[in-house]
Amino acid sequence: MKELNEKIIKWAKDRDLDTKGTVEGQSIKTAEEISELIKGISKENLEMIKDSIGDIYVTLVIGNMLSKNIELNGIYEEVLKWQLKFVEEIKKENNKKTIINTLARNIQDVLRDNYNNISGLKYFLGNLIGISIIYNLEFKECVESAYNEIANRKGKTIDGQFIKEEDL
């Protein structure tokens, strides 16, 4: 994950998000991607779920870069270990509403604290990893796929967030 995080940060800096981006703008991007994940879960659309998990993680890395820059590599390893323990219980429930409610609560905490709350980031990342496990998706593959999709994307940073060229 460290290499992916570095690539995402370089991508963001190459697009001036480190100087023109804002935590608020990134929060909007995170919220947009979360709505896509919720749609994917509600429709049982694995491709949408995979894409959204990766996209959300990308927005978290960039939001973290703009904020306190908490070391995400260590958090990922820690969260992955404890999340694996709880996934079987979640799988047994197979309750989409529980997953969505938990995700919504955690993202609210992360956005409210402007990516500065390490425990909020841990729980949120735990939810993303948990969702990937529940749907038999490899979390790192979700992130790699999202990065590969944006790697050569062109656009502009406007009002604190990157807008892809086709949306300008």
UniProtKB/TrEMBL annotation:
This is MazG-like family protein. It comes from Peptoniphilus ovalis.
